[in-house]
Backbone:
């Protein structure tokens, strides 16, 4: 790597202590310069516009909102940053959704410090990084899924069958209420299920209530 290379980085995480720790960890590498921080979804785009970073290290959980909702806006900027999702959520469905929305990397917070730097190197080289253990899980889920439902539809169906409200599902999965309603409508149409009992039966058939 070029010894003069500097990556300008914005940290988006709702825990100030985590941001402080990340800043210290990253700035121990001379290539990393943290130029901005924010702790809630409403401030992400503004912080990025103001700081003009090369990379945003983005948590999924920003309070009660999903950091993934910021990804399309960030990618739509005149000079879009690279986006590395750094999160505690080890469900491969979250990784799939992050990458499908345009994130360039997905890494768990329990990864070693060296793996974070390696992920940044890969993302800043123009490639996509997915933590290896999650890549293996995604492959297994893709091979095993024979019901025609997406990973997110399976998540919504499982929670619906367990009696959760739309609002509770939105909070649990870090997606908007409108997205839950859209998934619910799609499930009813695809499964021919017009009553909750029929959704429960479908979830049981697909092994989601085990």
Residues:
């Amino acid at each position: 790597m070029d010894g003069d290379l500097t990556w300008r980085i914005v940290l988006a995480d709702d825990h100030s202590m985590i941001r402080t720790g990340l800043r210290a960890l990253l700035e121990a590498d001379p290539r990393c310069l943290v130029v901005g921080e924010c702790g809630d979804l409403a401030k992400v785009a503004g912080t990025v516009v103001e700081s003009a970073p090369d990379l945003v290290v983005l948590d999924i959980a920003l309070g009660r909102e999903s950091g993934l909702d910021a990804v399309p806006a960030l990618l739509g900027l005149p000079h879009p940053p690279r986006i590395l999702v750094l999160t505690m959520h080890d469900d491969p469905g979250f990784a799939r959704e992050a990458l499908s929305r345009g994130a360039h990397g997905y890494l768990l917070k329990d990864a070693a410090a060296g793996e974070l730097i390696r992920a940044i190197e890969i993302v800043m080289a123009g490639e996509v990084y997915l933590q290896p253990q999650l890549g293996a899980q995604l492959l297994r889920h893709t091979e095993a899924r024979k019901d025609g439902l997406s990973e997110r539809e399976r998540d919504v169906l499982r929670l619906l069958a367990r009696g959760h409200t739309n609002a509770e599902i939105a909070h649990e999965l870090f997606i908007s209420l409108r997205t839950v309603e859209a998934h619910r409508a799609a499930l009813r149409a695809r499964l021919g299920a017009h009553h909750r009992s029929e959704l429960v039966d479908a979830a049981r058939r697909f092994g989601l209530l085990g």
Notes: The mean pLDDT is 87. The beta strands are 7-12, 32-38, 55-58, 61-62, 65-66, 82-87, 105-108, 129-130. The CA atoms of residues 57 and 84 lie 5 Å apart. The chain has two domains: 7-139, 145-205.
